[in-house]
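Subject: sequence -> C-alpha cells, single chain

Hey, anyone have a minute? Need the predicted structure for the following. Not urgent.
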Amino acid sequence: NDPQQIREFIKDLPVRKIPGIGTVSESLLHALNITTCKDILDNAEILYQLFPSKSFQFFIFSAHGICRPKHEDTEDDEVNRKSLSRERTFHSLETSKLAEVGEQIASDLFNDWKSRKLPAFKTLTLKLKTDTFEVKTRAATPLHFFENEEQIKREMNQLLTIELSHTSLNTKYRLMGLRISNFVKKADKTVSLTQLFQKNSKSSLVKKEQNMIDNNNKNKHDKHEDNEMNGCFDYFENGLETDELYDDEELNNNDEEEEEEE
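Reply:
Had a minute. Here:
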C-alpha cells in the first residue's frame, strides 16, 4: 500500500494495460510518443491541452495507480446524467451474431440503469462500427417511455433490422453499443401523444357537455321569460278589453238613468 512502491511498479507499464484505455486511446497516446504510465506524467501539460478535463484526470490518476471506483459517483452525477451507454468491441463480428450480442448489451444496460435508480427514459440509440471504422447510429423515441428490459430489446432489434437492411450481409463489425438518453425528470409533466389526445378528448367532451347544459338552461330561461311576457301581454290585452266593456255598460246605464229622471 506504499504509494512510492505503487508508482515504481506502474511507471513502466504500457498505457494499454490501464483499464479503460482501448486501441483508439492507445493510438492517440502513441502519436504523442506516450507509451508508458511514466510518459503520461512527463507529458501532463500536453495532455491537459489536448484532452477534455475528465480524460486528463483519468490519465493522471491512472498513471499514479489511483482508480476512481464506481461507488464514488455522487448523487448529483446521477441526477444530472444525460445518458447511459454500454459498448462491446470485437476483432471481427459477423452480421448474424449482432442480434445475440445486442440482447446481451441490452441486458447489461438495463441492469446498470436499474442499479443506478435512474428515471424512465425516452430515447434508445444503436451504435455500430464496421471493420473499416465506419460508424453508424440509429435512434428511436417511441410514444411510450422505456421502463423494462423487454422494451429495450424489442426496440434494439427493430433498429438493428432497419440498419442491416441498408448494408451488405458480408459486412464485418468491430463495435456494437446501446445508449439510453432523454431521461424523464420527476417533475416533468410531459405526456405522450396518445395521453395528450386522450386528455384533450376528455377536456373537449367535458367542455361540450357543459356547453350543452348551459345552452339548455339558457333556452329554458328564455322560454320562461317569453311565457311571462306573453302572460303579461295577455293580461293587459284581456284586462283592457274587460275594462272597455265595463265602461261602455256603465255609460249606457247612466244614460238610461238620466232619461228616466227627465
